Amino acid sequence: PLILAIESSCDETAASIIDGQGGLHSDVVASQIDFHSRFGGVVPEIASRKHIEAICGVCDECLATAAASLGVGSLRWRDLDAVAVTYAPGLVGALVVGLAFAKGAAWGADKPLIAVNHLEGHLYANRIAEPGMQPPMVVSLVSGGHTMLVHVRDWGDYETMGSTIDDAVGEAFDKVAKALGLGYPGGPIISKLAAKGNPKAIAFPRALMHSGDLRFSLSGLKTAVTTYIQKEQQAGRELNMPDIAASFEAAVVDVQVAKAKAALIETGAKEFCLGGGVAANPMLRGAYEKMCRKLGVRLTMPPLSACGDQAAMIAEVARDRFAQGRFADLSLDVKAHAPLDEPY
Ligand code: ATP
Ligand code: MG
Ligand code: FE
Questions:
Q1: pLDDT, the chain, mean
Q2: Are 90 and 336 in contact (CB under 8 A)?
Q3: Which of 78, 95, 249, 258 is most solvent-facing, going by the fewest CB within 10 Å?
Q4: Helix, strand, coil percentages in the chain from 3-state DSSP, rounded to 5
């Protein structure tokens, strides 16, 4: 089968076409970052409007690219076998655009509609990189809106082992970058700076590191960094941005690694993978490589291009739903929050 998947949960308008064997025939992403960066974060109202402007063009390009990849003259909606879409979690007004468009396309072409959870997409981004990977495994989902460790007992069978009690990791990167006056999104900017800094320069707190459970807390770290900056400025000292960035990252990474290790030991899983925008962070990736080597656990990481939001990961989930015959009907609605294992 050929499935077209649409993703519009935040500030990327994306579409991808996949075949039944997992072959990707197109993967189009239109980012809105330029429209949000001047506000230091995603503005929901702007996101919705930009999705509306972009979605037709993104889907047209997706169909045209796939036609070329398949060696056919053209590809129309009626040539597809299903239309998949992210319905949750995310910005409601952004999700609505993708969902309404997908419903219209599915209805017009008389094709089944498939509902996909965005977080399950981030998990499946690993399977694009490593088609043979098999649960049981542990996945660390680290993104702009989520920070959690999930036991993947099987594809579609999940147990959330722990998550953040306040900010998400990506959110902490974005807030710290904002405090440093560095722009949005903070993750890529901070990781570039951190590469030139000393991670041991400043001792930022490792919250809940020894809490004995798998919860995370990041709002205190953000406050510690902003307090440090204020103190240094008041003392008239020049800020060493690379050292601040590297020390902040090290505090994040130490806790992430300690908790991931505990989750692997608790489950006995021999596979570990990551998903979400923060999975692109070089210090985090390096630390996980080391940890997994020591534990004798197989590590899979999405390629850098598949860590952030795109539709290929949504298409990869949709491939399973199609094979299972699990379709949604036109009463499907979006949701700001949804557990990973909501049955759809
Ligand atoms: P969610 O997936 O929880 O709904 P989202 O879709 O907005 O949230 P993603 O697009 O998956 O989040 O990830 C975006 C986040 O990843 C941003 O907070 C960004 O700063 C962060 N990020 C991107 N690259 C890096 C990096 N190299 N290091 C750290 N963080 C990064
Ligand atoms: Mg984004
Ligand atoms: Fe995401």
A1: 97
A2: yes
A3: 78
A4: 50, 20, 35
In whole angstroms, give the CA distance from residue 14 to residue 336. Answer: 18
Containing 94, the helix (H) or strand (E) segment is helix 92-109
* C-beta atoms surrounding 296 within 10 Å: 8
Closest CA to 277 of 208, 184, 200: 184
In angstroms, rounded to a whole number, what is the distance separating the alpha carbons of residues 241 and 264?
34
Peptide bond preceding 282: is omega within 30 degrees of 0, i.e. cis?
no
Pocket test for ligand 1, best of 173, 174, 288, 305 (most atoms within 8 A of CB): 173
Entry pTM? 0.97
- Among residues of the chain, what percentage have pLDDT more than 70? 100
Binding residues, as ranges, are 118, 122, 141-145, 174, 187, 281, 309
Instruction: Report which of 31, 27, 97 is spatially closest to residue 62, judged by C-alpha positions.
Output: 27
Distance CA 142, CA 170 (A): 7
302 DSSP 8-state letter: -
Residue 173 burial (C-beta neighbours within 10 Å; 0-12, 13-18, 19+)? buried
**From the CA of 309, how far away is ligand 2's center (Å)?**
6
Tell me the pLDDT tens digit for each residue of 264-301.
999 999 999 999 999 999 999 999 999 999 999 999 99
Complex ipTM: 0.98
